[in-house]
Amino acid sequence: MSVVTAVVLAAGLGTRMKSSKPKAMHPIAHRPMIRHIIEMLETVGQHPLKIIAVVGPDMPSLEAAVAPHTIVLQHERHGTGHAVQMALPALPADGVVLILVGDAPLLRAETVEALLTAQAQSGSAILVGAFRPPVATGFGRIIHGDDGSVRQIIEEKDLSLAQQAIPVCNSGFFVVEAAILPQLLARLTPNNAQGELYLTDIVEHAVALGLRVGALEIPADDVLAVNSRAEQAIVERIAQDRCRARAMAEGATLLDPETTYFAADTVIGRDVIIGPNVAFGPGVTLGDDVTIHAFSHIEGATVAAGAIIGPFARLRPGAAIGAGAHVGNFVEVKNATLGAGAKANHLTYLGDATIGAGSNIGAGTITCNYDGIDKHRTIIGEGVFIGSNTALVAPITVGDGALVGAGSTITRNVPANALAVVRGTLTQKEGAAARFRDMRRAAKAAKKD
């Protein structure tokens, strides 16, 4: 089995993105595009695979995203051929080199496997990934010979009028025999409209040497690259559709799939029901039989089996919702654990807290976790009842079975099974309300006079 070295070209600045961020670091489904490529390559199982990324200088975020794989710097950007030349010292002398781009995050492992298999079976010195986009504008064209082999790839800026009508385009993905690649790269010249070293020119040089160049047509969606914010939106939509299809195939019900938004790493159990307008950020795991009602936002959270979330709930990073627990309308949970069966159904903020199993948190309750300098934790035991509009000033502990009366501000620990109530004395003055209104009306009339 041939050793495969994957070279990912990711040095692009993405000037059309109008961003200080490297192009390949822009996210699709909350994951940088380069991470989509790297993590996909890590799942390619049929071939031993080494990963090398070619990046530009001063791109520490990109280098960190590629780690622990090999980084090669392209200090000056003289085209795709030049980028692969920079990787030559890190390439083995045998096997095949898989060349990809770092801004095509929809490429799937099965497509990579198909390219590698097709190259091995055809014996081609180069195998080109070909595709047929709905509109060919923006892509180089693949020129075939009478025998069906590839004779040339012409970049769009160099196409004649007749060649612009060719429907088969270059994906930018190549599988090349490692032994011949240095010789092909050495023949590249910048004699083209861009004045760059085109990687695509290796096809012509291989043909001139009498080597066979083949092509495999692959799905157009896998090829889509991002060069602008508009293209990012198109790729995001396709990525979301894939996430939705996967969730439903694995046993989840999406009541309105087009308004459900996933992160690439969202994990969903079976028999989960997700309502309309639900958004998942990174790091979410849902157990079986979970219900997420409409207009909820969940990020960095785990939700155990049978729990009910929303509508209009927000789970922030560090939220851990126990089995059968309820987090309801306009409840925000951050870095807090709700035990099995615990409930916080209305208008509540639970931050930096531990809520025991079976406890009930009344409407309008807040954990006052920040003193302006540091964060502090609130610990609520099992079977506790917290009355409505309670403020729990952390650090504080409420013991098992305790009951806290509505409207209380709790600043000291409450023992297990104790009743804690903090309220001011009620003052009533008979008839005072009527006298106040009469006084205000008289003052208003006096101003008119």
3D architecture notes:
- With 449 residues, this protein is α/β, with parallel strands linked by helices.
- The protein folds into 2 domains: 4-223, Spore Coat Polysaccharide Biosynthesis Protein SpsA, Chain A, CATH 3.90.550.10; 229-420, 3 Solenoid (UDP N-Acetylglucosamine Acyltransferase, domain 1), CATH 2.160.10.
- 21% of the residues lie in helices and 28% in strands.
- It has 9 helices and 36 strands.
- Strands 13, 14, 16, 17, 19, 20, 22, 23, 25, 27, 30 and 33 form a 12-stranded parallel sheet that branches.
- β2 (27-28) and β3 form a beta hairpin.
- The longest helix is centred in the middle third of the chain and has 21 residues, at 229-249.
- It starts with a strand and ends with a helix.
- The model has no long low-confidence stretch (mean pLDDT 95).
